[in-house]
Design goal:
homodimer; about 325 residues; alpha+beta; seven-stranded mixed beta sheet; four-stranded mixed beta sheet
Chain lengths: ~325, ~325
Amino acid sequence: VETDFVRWLLATLPPDDRLEVPAGDDAAVLRPPGNRRTVVTVDMLTEGVDFLLGGMLAQGEPTSGFPPPATAEQVGRKAVAVSLSDLAAMAARPEAIVVAVALPRQGGRAIADEVAKGVAEMAAAYDVAIAGGDTNAWDGPLVVSVTAIGSVSPGRAWRRDTALPGDLLVLTGPLGGSLLGRHLAVTPRCREAEKIAAQFAVHAAIDMSDGLALDCTRLLTASGVGGVLDLPAIPIHPDAVRLHNLRPGDGRGPLAHALGDGEDFELLLAMPPEAAAAFVNADQNQLLAGTSMQPAVIGTVVAEPGLYGRQADETTVPLAAEGFDHAFD
Amino acid sequence: VETDFVRWLLATLPPDDRLEVPAGDDAAVLRPPGNRRTVVTVDMLTEGVDFLLGGMLAQGEPTSGFPPPATAEQVGRKAVAVSLSDLAAMAARPEAIVVAVALPRQGGRAIADEVAKGVAEMAAAYDVAIAGGDTNAWDGPLVVSVTAIGSVSPGRAWRRDTALPGDLLVLTGPLGGSLLGRHLAVTPRCREAEKIAAQFAVHAAIDMSDGLALDCTRLLTASGVGGVLDLPAIPIHPDAVRLHNLRPGDGRGPLAHALGDGEDFELLLAMPPEAAAAFVNADQNQLLAGTSMQPAVIGTVVAEPGLYGRQADETTVPLAAEGFDHAFD
């Protein structure tokens, strides 16, 4: 359904050559780049779970497991970012997005305006066409759903089910404590993925949305293999330390935050050892100029299923596949 | 995010050749048919506006302007159908869908199961690949968002902004009273659109989602033209008469229901006169075998903007662009 939200979204944008028929018709028509595959993913953000609109939660120490307040503009940005992160995890180049929103009847117009602003900012920053949307008004809270469409050469998408024993597990940046604010300023690794894919062999990939232990387990399970994480090698974000210091009594140290917090949106790659070595040393070699990754080898893929952590004293412990749980009954 | 809902959705489905990487990864990879354009549209259905889950509303006479109760399976079917209807209105062949849901935490599992069943039924009936999804649990009501991806030959999509003065307005079937049940058993005109597009010249098209007067105005306004509807020629569905008889005192006759009810999902086509004549006579000529349309010429496109109705006595009246209003403040 054509509506204000989409019109606002498009009002300031120039025509996009990738759209043979732009947003505003029953559907948009995309010109896919020659001989490329179409990659598609959808992510939905819901108020009260993925974000809480500002003003409804007391400021200060973050409540356990609950994100701090966001502006509607941040919600718009994040909704686009998490879908683009899925494209990055496929090594796909973002081409277009469509956005569906359910707006609270009260105050919906102001919220729509802000969400549209955030969506447009991210679309511009990542050079994706806005190909349409659907606006709904209802008596419920805000819901934003973004479908992202990308392209990749045939057979070149990074899958999660093709890791091989002997691969090294490589992470593109530090993890943990995203709840302190990074979860509202998500930087999808799209350009980084394209550069990596062009230069290094990658056997499998997944993005860190629900926590390293859980997402790594997904990759390993899908591939029918197991993994051993070198726990001291896992890069810990300063936010993980800050969050631990804010809540010292909860029994979760910085490493636990890095393993379980989620919403980091770094990439976890399974790479043959020589490719992994070349990648983590690429910074010195200027191969990845223009990106801001801190790649680190954090473990090894093994034939035996299961996820284990090797501690500093060389002992190994089983790691639970814990992370953000989308539970319902 | 990979979740149960999507796994259930896919559990019973055979592998689909259109998917190079199937659902379950960070994104799906589609093989578009050679030298075709990708067509994309999204529609979101929200509980309380587009449907009310059964058991929450007294049976019997439909309440004014509010849909009667639906099963979660019907919601799943409808969510797919309305997106496919948008593809039909572009003359695009459906290729794939992705589905995002927000499920109530209480009872969400049973609802997810039913929604998935409805989605899978429609996907099978219209031969579309299920390319992925996103499941969310929250404390709010049910939301289902379906993005549909189709294909069309370059330059062959039916736009809504290309109607020309002198075109005839052709409708693919009768309108009105969909609230009595047809709104939960939507039959998108996908195969019909493909057959029409292959045989007849169509200058512009739109599907009837929010009501003839409103949707026709959208087509005319987008094209920078106006239209005159031949009111006695508008095919009125028996449900429009039934709904009028159920609520005789509301001042809305069967024609008003046909003009304003929405959710019929017939197509409105702007065609050159000779093409329109050939199309409405096509049934006799077996050109559209296997379809169940009752095409009718219902008006004319004129240069002067505005929408008018010509009555049986040849007088004309302005028609308000009224229909379902997705209002918010």
